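User: I'm designing a mutation panel for Nitrite reductase large subunit NirB and want to avoid disrupting the core. Could you give me a predicted structure to guide residue selection? Please restate the sequence first so the numbering is unambiguous.

Assistant: Good idea. Sequence first, for numbering, then the predicted structure tokens:
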Amino acid sequence: MSRTREKLVVVGNGMAGIGMLEQMIKLGGRYDIQVIGSEPHPNYNRIMLSYVLEGTKTVEDIVLNDWSWYEQHGIQLHTGTTVTRIDTEARKVHTGSGLEIPYDKLIIATGSKPFMLPIPGIDKDGVAGFRDIADCQRMREAASSYRKAAVIGGGLLGLEAAKGLVSLGMDVTVVHLMEDLMERQLDHQASAMLQAELERQGIKFAMGKQTVEITGEQRVNGLLFKDGSRLDADFVVMAVGIQPNTAVAAGSGMKVNRGIVVDDYMQTSLPDVYAVGECVEHRGVCYGLVAPLFEQGLVLAKRLCGVDTKPYEGSVMATKLKISGVDVFSAGEFMDTDEHTVISAKDDWKRTYKKVLLRGNQIVGAVLFGDVSESANLQKLVRQQAEMNDEIYGSIMGTGCCGGGAKTASVETMADDEIVCGCNGVTKQAIVQVITEQGLTTVDEIKACTGATRSCGGCKPVVEDILKYVLGDGFAAAAKKGICGCTAMGRDEIVAEIKAKGLQTVREVMHVLGWSQPEGCSKCRPALNYYLGMIYPDTYEDEAESRFVNERMSANIQKDGTFTVVPRMYGGVTTPEELKRIADVSLKYDVKVVKVTGGQRLDLIGVKKEDLPKVWTELDMPSGYAYAKSLRTVKTCVGSQFCRFGTQDSMSMGALLERKFERLDFPAKLKLAVNGCPRNCAESCTKDIGIVGNDGGWEIFIGGNGGIKARLADSLCKVKSDDELVEICGAVMQLYRETANYLERTSEWVERMGLDTVRAQVVEDSSNRKALMERIELALAQVEDPWKKLLRDPHKRDLLFEHKEPVL
């Protein structure tokens, strides 16, 4: 370490302390930095813990700054280390492992700890908090062995814990002292809508119940309430609140009330000792939300770097909750009184609710349920206590023609240091700088560069508005791209022109629409072939020469020139007879390897080109379409037929869906999975369409991807019957076929279209859903197994398998 730099020690490796260090690095602060963290992990995103709990993300997925980040910036990180004492006279930090770390400046960022009710039985086995990764691991272990769980606390953490445990297959009841959920953030109406939606998702509620004892011998077996009633439970999660973690500060002589007392520049009562985050008390207030922590961190970072800064004057409290498709937001004041003017709108059909509170004509609070697209704008307006006017009213309530201009205006007047992404502490100025200095033109590029939108995604509309504002007319030009270098026309333009002009062949499209390359290229020819087949499913004659080589050969070509053959196994289920045929064929034709694929199929690797027709004939099984832009597999667990946790027959449903939709062309490969219960053994969360069985029916997820651009699927809807499931899945597939760009996976398609748009067209609009289903049925009526089709055509068989095939 350099001896000329001041020594900066940060006690706490959480989002507040490391967020502050990120700001210091951006400002060019020069310190020798050491960070001490009690957990064995690098800095991670606590907001995403509920996803780790339910199993849709790993610990690695939620890491914000990995080990290499600390090394890159010369920061020495001590993990699994607890600070026991701070010697402010000698300026040294003492740890439980015996370390003595000197400092010139010290930052306390010890966060908070869960509050555990002081009631009998609190120390029994099977009682846990929900605050860190270790808690998630304990809860996941409990879910693998026990059935009934109680979550005490109906606040944000309690509801996230409950949803995670339900996803793991537990029977969960949320116990709450008050009659309304999240009563510190939501009014009665929004709370009631939230409870109703979560009940539809399988969470039970015991409202107005005060827990007085956790019963059982060594292990918990239930809860006893003040009114004498009981609730059976073999696992209990305590989520009744948090308390600032101040023990080390108090023991070291700092002034502590509820939290560590700081001034407007985050200075504690001791010289050169600062504090930031949930452990802090500022002007009598302790904050348990993320955005205030970054606002505090930015002030402290500027202070330590010698940059002029406004003092921290407190934060407008704002909460955003997203649990499996439930969106809730509140900011500022949310309970209306006689002194408020109330603007509200409730839509029972779309399950949305908006309320804005005015004092005089100033916006002082807001509540949103279902549609939270205006949350960032409203949070800003509440913070500024802006005057309500027709333009703002039109934007928020969706009336008149003012909406579009209001967003642009709010971005234009937004302060440079205003935090846009509360999860990651990214300011407007940081976003503007990467757009102007690095030439970024998309939200995804901004996300990769700054971290904005990478967590909850709630700030994405504001990030896009900033992008539009900075690029101006260049935004449209940057967004407009042709499908390849042969044309400036995009997918929608081409499809519209094909329909309007009645174009029937690939060459006709290229000629009439003015392709710069008369023969097209390997990008546009397959795309045009797909679009024509999608538009005219009953009349278009497929052009094999416009397909990729794998699709022409109906097998995947390998780097040594041999091919792989994957026969269809519906739902991943086969028979001993089929297995014997596969083994016999593999031996006869010298197949090098037989591999079990990730989609529960057997892949025969190393088949010679000239042997393909004979292998298909002797297998006498349908093509598994492992080579095509088509339905690849429907992965299943064993479901209710065999599993003790299974609630639905996943194997039968998987086979039904696979038989129903196989062989149909899609813009890109399509993978499905069906789980018989929420335990996710078939990995539905990373499939294009994932289906999860529950006691009341099925839940449908869309847009998942486990590949290079990994993405968790979004919850689309719940259905009660198998017929509804098949119809909605078919409608989603056809909407995807009709609106996706060629080679665009559903993960990208859902983000571009918007989940609400898809839901509106296939779930809420029943007539449109039926029309989509009719169109996919028409397309399905034209398809047949490609292996059998080629075996019936001796001329094409000889042409493809006895001659050298050109590669596209």
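For picking mutation sites, this is relevant: Residues 400-409 have pLDDT under 50 and may be disordered. The radius of gyration is 30 Å.
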